[in-house]
Amino acid sequence: MTEEGQGSASGMPETLTIAVVGDVHDQWDAQDERALRRLGVDLVLLVGDFGNEAVGIVRAIAAMSIPKAVILGNHDAWYTATDWGRSKCPYDPKVEDRVQQQLDLLGETHVGYGYLDFPGLGLSVVGGRPFSWGGSQWKNEDFYASRYGVRSFQESTERIVAAAQAAAHDTILFIGHCGPLGLGSAPEDPCGKDWKPIGGDHGDPDLAAAIAHTRTLGKSVPLVAFGHMHHSLRHTKTQLRRPLHVDPAGTVYLNAACVPRIVSTEEDCLRNFSLVTLRRGEVFQTSLVWLNQDCAIHSKQVFYQQNAPAIEEREESEAIA
C-alpha cells in the first residue's frame, strides 16, 4: 500500500482533488483561477454553457494554466445549432464562426467526442456529446451532421466509446454538458424535467450507453460530471434539484450546475465550485463550496462521503490552506 500523497501502482496519486465548474453563464473572471489555485486542485473539469457563444469567456478559460478538460454546452452554440438561434444571431455567420472559434481556443482541452490523458494523475477524461440540449429526442440534426458527421444516438455512442477505447488510462472520468439517461425521472432528480409537462428523464441516452460499454472494456468509471439542469427548479421554490446519484457499480454522478455561480452582496462576492476528492481511484467525497472574495470557504455542503450517508454541512469562513 502506498503512503498518503504517493503514487499508486497505476500511476495515480493516492489522493486527488478535482474541481467541477458548472454552468458559467457569463460569470467567470480572473478571481476564479486564483480561487482554484488557493483550493489546491489537481484538475478542473468545466461542463459548458459559458455564455451565448461567449468567445471572450472561453478565451479566458483556455488561458488558465491549471490542468483542465472542457466540454461545450448548448448555450455555446446558441446562435448556430437551431433555426430559432440563427434567426436571433447578433453577428454575421458568413463572416465568423463563433462555435469554431471556441473549439480552436480550447484545442485538445475540449474533450467533446474525444479524450485527454493526464499521465501525472493516472487517469483520462472522456467527453460525451458536445453542445447537448439533453433528452431522448435527437435534436439539431443538421448541426451534428455537418460538424461531426453524427446522425443518431447510436453513432454518437460509437464516437464516445471510441474515445474511451483510445484513452491511455484505465481510470476514466466522463464529462458531459447534460448527464446520462437513467438517473431518475422525478423533476427533482439530477436530470429530471422540471418544466411542463412535469417529470421525465431528460438525460442523454448516448452518454449512458457509452458509460455502460466502457465498463465492459475493463475501464473504471469513478465519476461522471455534468451540468445543464440547474439546481434551482422551475416548478417549485421549496426544494432544490438532487445533485448527486451513485449507481450500483459505485460510479458517482455529479450535477454541478448551481446557478448563478457568482453572487454579490453588499459585504462580499461569493462564487461556487463543486469539489471531488478521489482516493485510490474512487470518489471519497463530493461537495459544493462557496468562496468569499478573499478565497476563503464561506460555506461547504457535502453531498457524498464514501461509506457514509449523504450529509449536508456548513463550514463558515473556513480558511483555505
Automatic annotation (TrEMBL):
SUPFAM superfamilies: Metallo-dependent phosphatases. Coiled coil: none annotated. One of its GO terms (molecular function) is hydrolase activity. Residues 17-231 form the Calcineurin-like phosphoesterase domain. Pfam families: Metallophos. Gene3D superfamilies: 3.60.21.10. This is TIGR04168 family protein.
